[in-house]
Specification:
The protein has 916 residues and is α+β, with helices and mostly antiparallel strands. It has a domain of 357 residues. The chain contains 24 helices and 27 strands. Strands 1, 3, 11, 12, 13, 14, 21, 23, 24 and 25 form a ten-stranded mixed sheet that branches. Strand 4 and strand 5 form a beta hairpin. Helix 1 crosses helix 14 and helix 17 packs across helix 21. The longest helix is centred in the first third of the chain and has 38 residues. The chain is elongated, with a radius of gyration of 42 Å. The relative contact order is 0.14.
């Protein structure tokens, strides 16, 4: 007998395909769908990669590429998630030396090295006049109480203050001398009565107050004589405005963010600007140059109320001078005048004051520096919970006030989230020798050179932290407005720097000769922002240049180095507990920064492409293995007959492989023919090379999957022709009903049933995982503007991939059910002959499909939960929910897969009856 006959083998293969059309159609369809999925999904992966590259590249370079900070300044949140809170430098005071800065400037590849040194807060004093002309009555002696309550937090916090007093008399007053001994200077103000008696009515030192928040710190408790003619009868309202001082290199800052273009009055800082001896009103002091922000971001309103007290209280001043301990006994009276003063009003006066446009005799030197620690948070996966702390009143101590305190803003009595360290100025006898700021210009933070908001990085903190209400209750309380910082230095929100000076001023402001406490004269710089030369975006060459410079900085300085290229805004939810003075708990969203999120997105898209590619190949191979194994098992009798007539094992092996290759070639071509129009319609990136690879992959996979079944076919023996396809199922229990027969059939054919279950299980697990990956992009990058702009482009194709995976699982179950129907045709015909209706037999097949779907769905759903828990950030509750939906869908798909085999029942039963 001839041993090799390709023509006969070809006719046999074609005959097998034509003779078993339903199963051939199922197999062809599944392989075609797998090939189309391979083509479309890999094209989608390439497209998403291209879109991501283009989108990230389109954002352009960020303001700077590398952030250098002192070692150990990363917060726990930053270490775990790479997120940085805006204004993070307000809690970093020094740690980098000037020599390290200059060393970094000389590193090859460094285009700009812009340092920023946070110096601390200073309290600058503003005096506003309050007119009393309209409230003066006819009495010879009049007494008024003056209270100045503070409203903040968008009107939610109301901070009361104890009253101070203004005494008016129509008699003459004797003021203490302007010079002389300390005892002479501290003499009280005396009223000269008509009989010549001189009675003390006011303390010349402004009165004693017991804490830094006392209203008398605002310069009330005044005695005024109406016997002296004056155009206006005024009292001074003293307001302390906290200002954060920052030092920069004017040249480097101008190159980095164009701060020089934001000047609206005066001029920009020069590199040569340095502290100098003051002249005129500043004589005897050391002035240092600053540019001052034109905008004030504090949320404080001062509510002044003047009350007329009874005449008896006015005459009682002759017995007990103002600022005594009997203030409570003076009683109360009707309000005769109200006035609201916003802190912005005081701030604009302060700006003119610093420019010298107002009498500089009222300027405040830097008689103390206050520095704050960063906010700390409790552990939380999603919502931030800031940790409260306390600060003693001693942090407001002063060597220049009679009672040892500065007049601190009343807000500082509210809840504290930061520790405050005070650095008190020395040399109380000569306050004129203290540093004093003088403004050479005014800058508008809104005019600082904008960068693409998708690649935002914190510059110098010139803009305030964004804190928007995050729930309905907070939106209602805040009236849909952002929460703003206030005068509370220890509050949750910090104001941006308002005074910007030069690095040359640091020796004066960091001098241990001028201020107490531990300063940073040797290492005054808080951070250095670096722009690398030749960086045009996030391409490979630019990333290599940034990495090289970063490595050089680490090697030469040992400082902490963060690559910030591709950083992007993110939103973090924060729960603020209720304040001390009426503010309710608030839920706010803050605009944080995620470092290097664009690089993370590109890497995530690469991983996603690889995941989809492997997913399609594995599902396709699994299905082909299932179909081929089942086909060989169903043809055992035929293969045994061929062995009886002399076919060799090699011939049987090649026959099966030839059939697989033909199926793979035709199905692959059909799949590509379907995929190409879909790809063009959805603007996916599919090339001719990808088409060739898809067809080759279809042929290769089918042949690879057919090797094991072909090897089994080559071992067929002549006696196989006489044995039944399905082995005897030994069971002593009677099987009754459709469910019992369905379970027995699946157990009897457990080999191919398990393969079908595995195919569907992988499809269900893949479905859950793909849904979680898509959700994880939204979850992990939610609020990352750059992340949203990328993932939104590929979401539709991902869901199409889910449908394809499930379709392959359905085809696999249908193929197994069809083989079961064909092999059990005689058994099913017997059941119908004994009284079963055709509907009963059909429903049994559907039950078999549903059982396969149930088992595959349970395994796949469980695997999905494990995958989500270990490889995505999706909450476990969401994972269980996705798996439950997939479980129900898998059972339904198993039932749907039984439709085609059930339709083949009539023909198979008729054939079986004829054979019998």
């Amino acid at each position: 007998m001839r041993t090799l006959w390709p023509a006969n083998r070809g006719r046999l293969v074609l005959g097998q395909i034509r003779g078993d059309r339903p199963r051939a159609v199922t197999t062809f369809a599944a392989i075609a769908v797998a090939t189309a999925a391979f083509t479309v999904l890999t094209g989608a992966a390439d497209t998403s990669k291209v879109v991501a590259d283009q989108k990230v590249a389109a954002t352009g370079p960020s303001a700077y590429d590398i952030l250098v900070r002192p070692s150990g300044t990363q917060t726990p949140i930053e270490r775990s998630s790479g997120e940085v809170r805006p204004g993070f430098l307000d809690g970093v005071f020094g740690g980098i030396s000037l020599s390290q800065w200059h060393q970094i400037e000389k590193i090859p590849g460094v285009s700009v090295a812009a340092p920023v040194a946070m110096v601390g807060y200073t309290l600058q004093t503003v005096f506003l006049s309050v007119h009393l002309n309209s409230v003066v009555g006819a009495g010879s002696r009049q007494l008024f109480s003056v209270s100045v309550d503070t409203t903040t937090d968008r009107g939610l916090s109301h901070i009361p203050s104890p009253p101070s007093y203004v005494y008016l008399t129509r008699h003459r007053l004797l003021e203490p001398p302007n010079s002389g001994t300390l005892a002479q200077l501290n003499q009280p103000v005396r009223e000269v009565e008509p009989n010549g008696r001189k009675v003390p009515v006011c303390r010349s030192d402004g009165g004693h107050y017991s804490n830094p928040y006392d209203a008398e710190a605002r310069e009330f408790d005044e005695c005024i004589s109406l016997a002296v003619r004056r155009p206006d009868l005024d009292i001074p309202l003293k307001i302390s405005v906290p200002l954060l001082i920052e030092a920069i290199s004017p040249t480097a800052e101008a190159k980095l963010d164009g701060l020089n273009h934001s000047i609206v009055k005066g001029r920009y800082l020069r590199a040569s600007d340095a502290p100098a001896q003051g002249r005129g009103a500043d004589r005897g002091s050391t002035v240092f140059p600053v540019i001052v922000s034109s905008r004030n971001y504090l949320d404080d309103t001062f509510n002044l109320a003047i009350r007329r007290l009874p005449t008896s209280a006015a005459h009682g001043v002759l017995t007990h001078a103002l600022a005594g301990d009997d203030n409570a006994s003076r009683g109360t009276g009707p309000v005769v005048k109200r006035r609201k003063v916003g802190i912005n009003t005081a701030y604009q006066v302060l700006v003119r004051q610093l420019q010298g446009q107002i009498n500089r005799e009222v300027f405040s030197p830097v008689d103390g520096l206050w520095r704050v620690d960063p906010v700390r948070y409790g552990s939380s996966a999603s919502v931030l919970h800031p940790i409260r702390t306390t600060n003693p009143e001693s942090v407001w101590s002063s060597r220049f006030q009679y009672d040892g305190y500065v007049g601190a803003p009343a807000d500082n009595q509210d809840t504290a989230y930061r520790k405050i360290q005070e650095h008190v100025a020395f040399n109380s006898a000569t306050p004129g020798a203290l540093p004093a700021p003088t403004a050479v210009g005014v800058f508008d933070p809104n005019r600082i050179e904008p960068f693409n908001p998708l690649t935002h990085v914190p510059l110098g903190g010139y803009e305030p932290t964004q804190a928007t209400p995050a729930d309905d209750a907070s939106r209602s309380a805040l009236k849909d407005r952002d929460l703003l910082p206030n005068g509370n230095l220890a509050g949750y929100l910090a104001q941006p720097p308002q005074l910007v000076t030069t690095m040359s001023s640091l020796p004066l402001l960091e001098s241990s000769q001028a201020f107490s406490g531990k300063l940073n004269a040797r290492k005054p710089i808080s951070a250095i922002r670096i722009r690398v030369a030749g960086v045009t975006g996030l391409n490979a060459l630019s990333r290599a240049r940034v990495n090289l410079v970063a490595q050089d900085i680490i090697q030469k300085t040992g400082l902490q180095v963060d690559i910030t290229s591709g950083s992007s805004p993110s939103t973090r939810a924060t729960d603020l507990p209720a304040g001390t003075f009426g503010r309710p708990p608030l839920a706010i969203d803050e605009g944080w920064i995620v470092k290097g999120v664009a690089l993370q997105i590109l890497r995530a898209v690469d991983r996603k492409s690889l995941l989809l590619f492997i997913l399609v190949l594995f599902v396709c191979g699994l299905f082909v293995l299932n179909a081929t194994t089942a086909a060989v098992r169903a043809r055992r009798s035929q293969l045994g007959l061929l062995a009886c007539v002399g076919w060799s094992p090699t011939q049987l092996f090649l026959t099966v492989l030839t059939e697989q290759a033909l199926i793979g070639l035709v199905a692959g071509a059909v799949g590509v023919a379907v995929a190409v129009p879909i790809a063009h319609a959805t603007t996916l990136h599919v090339t001719a090379a990808r088409v060739a690879v898809a067809v080759g992959a279809a042929v290769g996979l089918t042949m690879l999957a057919g090797i094991v079944p072909a090897a089994a076919a080559s071992r067929s023996r002549p006696l196989e022709a006489l044995r039944p396809v399905v082995g005897r199922f030994r069971s002593r229990r009677a099987v009754r009903g459709r469910l019992g027969l369905a379970i027995r059939t699946l157990v009897r054919t457990r080999g191919r049933s398990l393969v079908a279950v595995a195919g569907l299980a992988f499809g269900i697990a893949s479905t859950v995982l793909l849904l979680a990956v898509t959700t994880s992009f939204n979850g992990q990058l939610a609020g990352d503007l750059l992340g949203q702009a990328v993932t939104v482009r590929v979401r539709g194709v991902d869901y199409a991939a889910v449908v394809v995976m499930l379709a392959i699982g359905v085809f696999g179950i249908a193929d197994v059910l069809y083989l079961n129907v064909r092999e059990r045709a005689a058994e099913l015909a017997t059941l119908q002959a004994t009284g079963w209706s055709r509907g009963d037999v059909t429903r049994m097949v559907v039950v078999e499909g549903s059982l396969l779907g149930l088992l595959g769905s349970v395994i796949g759903a469980a695997a999905g939960v494990v995958l989500i828990s270990n490889f995505t950030s999706e909450p476990l509750g969401n994972a269980v929910g996705l798996s439950a939906v997939a479980l129900a869908a898998g059972v339904a798909l198993g039932a749907v897969a039984a439709v085609l085999p059930a339709q083949a029942l009539p023909r198979r039963l008729a054939t079986a009856l004829a054979e019998e």
